[in-house]
Inverse folding.
C-alpha cells in the first residue's frame, strides 16, 4: 500500500539559513505551487512490494561499472554499499572514513551487509537507496520526488523557526526527532530507545501532519546540489536519470539518526547535504511527492 499523500498549499516562504552552515545561504524568497507529499518516508515493506511487483534491482545490488570507476580494484567493484560503524572511542571528526565502511553485499535487504536483514523492521524507512532507486519507485507509484524547495516548504509547515517545532532542539525536554543521542560517533544512547532507524511516526508530526521530515533518514530531492542556494524557481519537471552519474550530487534534506550537534547539526528544515547519485548508505531514504491541483494556494 502506498503512503497517504498530504496536500500542501502553494505559497512563498523564506528559504535557507545563515546561522549554521554556509551552503544553506543565502536566505531568499522561494515560491512553490500547490502539491502533495507522502506523510512518511517509504518503508521497507513498501519498497519490498515494489521490488516484488517489478523485479527491480537497486544500485547497491549491481556490480560497479569499471568505466565509471577507473583505477578501482576489481574486488572493490562488487555489489555493496556504505555502512555506519561506531568507533571504539573519540576520533577526529574531520575524517568520516573512520566510521563509514564499504560492505560487500550491503543493500536495502541487508543494510549492514551479510548477516543483517530488515525482517523485523517492516515499518522502518528503507535505506541503502540511491537516487535512481528512489526515482524508479516514484515512477512505479505514479508519483515523483520533491524538489528541495518543496521539501523545505513542507518541513517548515509555515514556521520560520530554526527547527520545525520551534527555536530550540527540544520542546519541554521532549525529543522531537530521531537524532544521535550521546557522543558521536562512538556512543549512541538511542532516541526514545531506537539506535539507528525508528518506525515511521515514532516522533511527533509537524504542522502539516507529516512525520519524520526531520531525523530518521536523509531524503533525496530532485535538486542538484550547489555550494550555496541558486535563487530561482525550482522545477519538478526534470526527468530522473536512468543510470546514476557518480560525478553529480543531488541535494539531501532532513538529517538522520546520525546527526549530532558536534558533527552534523542538520536536523533542521534549512539544512542540506550533497550526495552523489550512485551513493546508498544506512541513513539515506526518500519519500514521494505529486502534483496537486486540488490543494489551495496561499
Amino acid at each position: 500500500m502506498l503512503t497517504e499523500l498530504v496536500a500542501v498549499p502553494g505559497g512563498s516562504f523564506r528559504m535557507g539559513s545563515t546561522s549554521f552552515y554556509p551552503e544553506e545561504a543565502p536566505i531568499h524568497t522561494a515560491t512553490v505551487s500547490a502539491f502533495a507529499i507522502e506523510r512518511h518516508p517509504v518503508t521497507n515493506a513498501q519498497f519490498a512490494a515494489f521490488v516484488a511487483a517489478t523485479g527491480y534491482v537497486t544500485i547497491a545490488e549491481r556490480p560497479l561499472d569499471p568505466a565509471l570507476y577507473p583505477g578501482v580494484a576489481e574486488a572493490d567493484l562488487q555489489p555493496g554499499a556504505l555502512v555506519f560503524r561506531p568507533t571504539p572511542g573519540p576520533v577526529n571528526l574531520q575524517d568520516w572514513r573512520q566510521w563509514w565502511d564499504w560492505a560487500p553485499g550491503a543493500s536495502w535487504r541487508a543494510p549492514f551487509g551479510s548477516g543483517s536483514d530488515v525482517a523485523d523492521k517492516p515499518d522502518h524507512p528503507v535505506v541503502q537507496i540511491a537516487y535512481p532507486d528512489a526515482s524508479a519507485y516514484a515512477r512505479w507509484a505514479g508519483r515523483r520526488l520533491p524538489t528541495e524547495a518543496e521539501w523545505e516548504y513542507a518541513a517548515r509547515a509555515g514556521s520560520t523557526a530554526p527547527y520545525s517545532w520551534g527555536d530550540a532542539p527540544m520542546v519541554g525536554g521532549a525529543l522531537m526527532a530521531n537524532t544521535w543521542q550521546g557522543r558521536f560517533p562512538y556512543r549512541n544512547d538511542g532516541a526514545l530507545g531506537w539506535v539507528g532507524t525508528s518506525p515511521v511516526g515514532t516522533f511527533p508530526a509537524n504542522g502539516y501532519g507529516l512525520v519524520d521530515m526531520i531525523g530518521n533518514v536523509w531524503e533525496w530531492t530532485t535538486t542538484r546540489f550547489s555550494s550555496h542556494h541558486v535563487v530561482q524557481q525550482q522545477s519538478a519537471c526534470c526527468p530522473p536519470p536512468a543510470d546514476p552519474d557518480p560525478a553529480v550530487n543531488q541535494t539531501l534534506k532532513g538529517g538522520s539518526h546520525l546527526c549530532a550537534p558536534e558533527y552534523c547539526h542538520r536536523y533542521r528544515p534549512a539544512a542540506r547535504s550533497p550526495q552523489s547519485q550512485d551513493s546508498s548508505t544506512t541513513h539515506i531514504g526518500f519519500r514521494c511527492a505529486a502534483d496537486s491541483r486540488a490543494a489551495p494556494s496561499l
Q: What stands out?
A: The chain has one domain: 5-291.
